[in-house]
Write a structure and sequence with these properties.
heterodimer; A: about 220 residues; alpha/beta; Rossmann fold; Arc Repressor Mutant, subunit A; 2 domains; six-stranded parallel sheet; B: alpha+beta; 4 domains; five-stranded mixed sheet; two-stranded antiparallel ribbon; elongated
């Protein structure tokens, strides 16, 4: 699987390259600035891009803008965005096209290499990987609103993991329950949120995220 | 066709007759109005209404009645009284007042009066012209009389039409005359202000004399008492001039410094002398400040000169205009009709300008013309004169550059102290957070790793547990660092600027927040940060202290000021004096010459407006379009 990596800190860039290579990824380009990233994305057309939000030359949100621009040109280009901080605002912008194949994680998550590699794979396959912190903020700002408030604690847990982009199997493993039980919970959540049930894992996640994002217009 | 020509002279004659009736009615109405009777004024409208109908019938031009609707009858309120400008037991007086105001404030009334006053000499006269020609023809030989009569016949409809145009212009619903009247009234008011300026300058001259006496050696100690009152008057004039002309004159006086602290022995030192109480010191400080303050002496100079200046720009033009209009024009207008019936001469010896020494060149017929011209000219120059006077006052009474600088220095000293304090407090907070948070966690992490090193060979399972703990410690340290960074300078603010930073804040908030942003660029980083934290504080207050469910944040830049308005739907009644949070916001914004205004009536809504003067840099030219 071909990866383009953009990260301005050399230490972290090398670390990520090693990590990805060790897990069988082929890092075709690892760059350190926004303009380089734009070029690499256009030239290499990778299977997945791992991008730091803040990059030279402006050290603002170069990486994010480059990723969004690349996805405008190649819809559904899988991009995993890494940042020192996560914001609902950015998550919203990344999810806005509703195509999926998007990841948005804190850099801290790299520490847990298994979960990080899992997230990269999920994004490359067209799934989503939202940072737990984004999702918990999202749920917190929805907590007052009627349908979300009506969920049981277990359903909220399932919703949280589902919104992060986990599959039923992964949720079941995390919560130590059977996959069937997770299925029941998800069905109940969809009923309470009045969303159309869907078997497609990815489409289901996008629907949940769109729902959660729609309540608070900001 | 022929009928029109035949009828026109008769109709014209009738209209002329009516115009004479109108003139008579106007004279009676004016006399009656001095007695305060206004009931006639509504009846009086029969004549203009009749002429409107006649114009419609004969000329086919519809003239709508321009009058305002009648006032509604008074209604007794729940408390048993009738409410007007005061409370009334019975309706009679109130009804009278309402009718009076209704008629008197209607510009159409004044237009009617002008029409009644002028028509006999203008439109009415023209309408009567054909008949006049017939009469004239009666005195002429036949060869001249016939063409003249024919001419009169031909002229009839045209003359009638001219009458119609004239009357419609005044009787129709137009605010033109209202506008002219407003224009004149504005100038009359300015004339009054000029006259008042002269009057007040005489009062001021009294203070000037007192001030000058105080300058006499030995009486200097009295100066503060003299200036205390004169400053009140001069401040009043500053305010008045600002209200009248829009020329803003700021108060220039130096503040009296705070009294010095007592010596260790509890006494107060002034020079080489010691005093038991600070009273004398304070008195001396007031005196020294007053004497040193250049504004004291500029005030004095202004007070001395003011009577002469106002005499020139105020009293002379006003008196000339009044004399010109009333003595030479108006009395001339009225002296003729009065002289017809009585031998009373309204002008009482002021007949002509030529009676004035130095005006002997003026022929008698020119007096009313010059008089009217002087009045009209005065109307035109009134405003420029007042403005000229205002500029002169600003020159004398506004703070001098050094006074303004001195005041600015005071202000800057104060805000700098606040800023430095705030910054020091901020650094202390960061130091404490690092010390108690991340630093402590790293110490724990180091200890754990040390233990792992020892246990690795002897007890691998225990080592594994410690390793997990170490990793968790590092993750927690990161979380804490992130929180700290957010408190120092939120990353979104650095990356996206104020608008998106507030949007991000709104998304994380438990309330529903509507954010609108209208910014063309980014403010300077310190201003962005100060504004961000100010808004954050305001929103925290909204969440903590109000029942508000929704709030809106509006951010815009206008007239070189960044303005953020936060409105919530809570119960209101917020008092900035109660919470230290909002006070802190105010003080921090003051560093940037910004300010905060809170309005929070009981029952809500609460509005907080933050304003900071600043320029926006042009938006960052990003290679990526769209979402930024």
């Amino acid at each position: 699987m071909r990866v383009v990596l953009a990260e301005d800190l050399a230490l972290l860039r090398d670390g990520l390259t090693h990590l990805l290579t060790a897990h069988g990824f082929d890092v075709v380009a690892s760059v350190a600035s926004g303009p380089e990233l734009v070029r690499a994305l256009a030239d290499q057309r990778p299977d997945v891009a791992v991008v730091d939000v803040r990059l030279p030359p402006t050290f603002t949100d170069e990486g994010l803008q480059a990723a969004l621009e690349a996805r405008r040109q190649v819809p559904g280009l899988p991009v995993l965005v890494l940042s020192q901080h996560v914001e609902q605002l950015y998550a919203r912008e990344l999810l806005a096209d509703g195509v999926g194949a998007i990841g948005y994680l804190l850099k801290d998550r790299v520490l847990n290499s298994d979960q990080f590699i899992d997230a990269v794979r999920r994004v490359a396959d067209g799934g989503t990987a939202m940072d737990p912190e984004v999702i918990s903020k999202l749920l917190a700002s929805n907590a007052r609103h009627e349908p979300v408030a009506a969920l049981s604690p277990r359903e909220r847990e399932v919703l949280e993991l589902m919104a992060q982009g986990r599959s039923n199997a992964a949720i079941a493993a995390q919560l130590y329950v059977s996959e069937g039980a997770v299925g029941k919970h998800t069905a109940s959540i969809f009923a309470k949120l009045q969303l159309a049930p869907s078997d497609d894992n990815n489409r289901r996640v996008m629907a949940v995220l769109a729902y959660l994002n729609s309540v608070n217009p900001g | 066709m022929l009928r029109r020509h035949v009828l026109a002279p008769y109709r014209g004659l009738l209209l002329f007759g009516l115009s004479l009736v109108g003139f008579a009615q106007f004279v009676v109405a004016i006399m009656l109005s001095f007695t305060g009777v206004v009931l006639h004024m509504e009846l009086e409208r029969w004549l203009p209404n009749l002429c409107r109908r006649l114009i419609h019938r004969w000329l086919g031009v519809e003239v709508p009645r321009p009058y305002r609707p009648k006032p509604s009858p008074p209604v007794r309120e729940a408390d048993g009284w009738y409410h007007g400008d005061q409370l009334y037991k019975r309706t009679f007086l109130l009804r009278y007042r309402r009718r009076h105001d209704w008629i008197h404030h209607d510009p159409a009334t004044h237009r009617d009066h002008i029409w009644e006053l002028l028509t006999p000499f203008t439109g009415g006269l023209v309408a009567a012209l054909p008949v006049g020609l017939f009469v004239l023809a009666g005195f002429l030989p036949v060869w001249a009389a016939v063409p003249m009569a024919l001419f009169g016949l031909a002229l009839g409809p045209i003359a009638l039409d001219a009458y119609g145009r004239w009357s419609v212009s005044l009787l129709g619903p137009s605010d033109d005359v209202g506008r002219i009247w407003t224009w004149i009234k504005d100038r009359l008011q300015v004339g009054l202000q000029l006259a008042a300026s002269f009057g007040l300058s005489l009062v001021g001259f009294g203070y000037a004399v007192a001030g000058l006496l105080a300058v006499y050696p030995g009486l200097m100690a009295l100066l503060p008492y003299a200036t205390r009152d004169s400053r009140r008057l001069v401040n009043l004039r500053r305010r008045q001039i600002g209200e009248w002309t829009g020329v803003v004159i700021e108060e220039p006086y130096l503040p009296v410094p705070p009294p010095p602290p007592p010596r260790p022995d509890g006494r107060y030192q002034f020079g080489k002398k010691l005093y038991d109480s600070p009273n004398h010191l304070v008195r001396m400080q007031v005196l020294v400040t007053t004497v040193k303050d250049p504004a004291t002496w500029r005030d004095l100079a202004w007070l001395v000169l003011d009577p002469f200046v106002t005499l020139l720009v105020g009293a002379v033009p006003v008196v000339a205009a009044l004399m010109g209009f009333f003595v030479y024009f108006w009395s001339w207008v009225w002296s003729r009709p009065i002289a017809l019936f009585t031998s009373f001469d309204l002008r009482m010896g002021w007949a002509y300008l030529a009676d004035f020494p130095g005006w002997t060149w003026a022929p008698n017929w020119s007096s009313p013309i010059i008089g009217l011209a002087a009045a009209v000219l005065a109307l035109f120059v009134a405003k420029p004169l007042l403005r000229l006077y205002a500029l002169w006052c600003r020159l004398m009474l506004a703070p001098t550059k050094s006074a303004m600088l001195a005041r600015r220095v005071d202000q800057l000293t104060e805000t700098r102290a606040v800023a430095v304090d705030a910054q020091a407090a901020e650094l202390r907070r960061i130091e404490r957070d690092l010390h108690d948070g991340a630093q402590a966690r790293w110490v724990a992490m180091g200890l754990n790793l040390g233990a792992v090193e020892r246990l690795l060979d002897t007890d691998p399972s225990a080592a594994r547990k410690l390793l997990t703990a170490a990793r968790e410690s590092s993750a927690e340290a990161l979380v804490e660092l992130r929180r700290l960074v957010r408190g120092i300078h939120p990353p979104v603010l650095a990356e996206r600027g104020l608008g998106d930073a507030i949007r991000a804040l709104a998304l994380d908030s438990a309330q529903t927040l509507h954010v609108t942003v209208d910014l063309d660029g980014r403010a300077g980083a310190p201003i962005e940060a100060a504004t961000y934290f100010a808004v954050n504080e305001v929103l925290t207050n909204v969440a903590k202290h109000t029942s508000a469910k929704q709030a809106s944040v509006d951010i815009r830049h206008h007239n070189n000021r960044l303005r953020v308005t936060v409105v919530d739907d809570g119960d209101g009644g917020a008092d900035p004096a109660k919470g230290t949070g909002l006070r802190g916001v105010e003080r921090r914004l003051a560093t940037f010459d910004g300010d905060m205004v809170l309005t929070s009536p009981p029952g809500g809504p609460t509005t907080v407006t933050l304003e900071v003067p600043c320029a926006l840099s042009s938006p960052k030219t990003s290679p990526y379009s769209g979402t930024a």
